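Summarise what follows for lecture notes:
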Amino acid sequence: MPSENKIIMQQILHLLCTAGSCQLHFSGHEHTLTTGCCMIAMASHVGRIQPSEDCQLYQLLLPADQQASCMPHSSYGTCGWLHLFMHPIFQLEEEALVILEHDFKDVAFRSEHTPEAYRQEAVLQSMRTLYLDAMSAHAALFEREEAPLRSADIMSRFIQMLEGGSYREHRTVAYYAQELCVTPKHLHKISTQVSGRTPSYWIQQFTVMEIRHLLMHRKLTAKEISEKLNFDNVSHFSRYVSEHL
């Protein structure tokens, strides 16, 4: 690997260190990835990467606009991704390291050996597996973490409101900011700092997951779905689906 790696903007960076160590600049601070460390973060937050001579480092870059396609279509997937943003660097247990290394290798294999016509879908499918395994390992490490700081606490309560189904009736940032006793601007700042995404993004994610689920039940008409999610009318619902799906 080169001693300094310039990261492309608007991509998700995935690093897995399986031997040696690696110095990197992340969000204004210096960090060291040692053997068994994994990192998943916005590439734009990473400055330089300097591996040791004996470092074995897997590196994957995924366009941010394709990341949503790799997430499990459930609240687990959304909250798991949020939790990864709150703790982007984590030390894997031995078994989890073996699994993640296999996942990284599989993504590379699919990228190199799948026919071009099917390559993108094959790589994204392998990335879905990688995310599931990473989230599982991550959850096992942080399930007993201490109480979060205020910003993380506000973000956590925001996500809990969405998990509770508030998005079915309320899809404006102003509503959630009022419920959390902060200004919309402050909620936007907290969400961006903690998760790398705007509050509108998370509202949209939960809404889209619900729509996907309801569309699978073919007995429901567009009118019934739009009413269930409190859209003004079918036309408004159709425009929303066209834009976000």
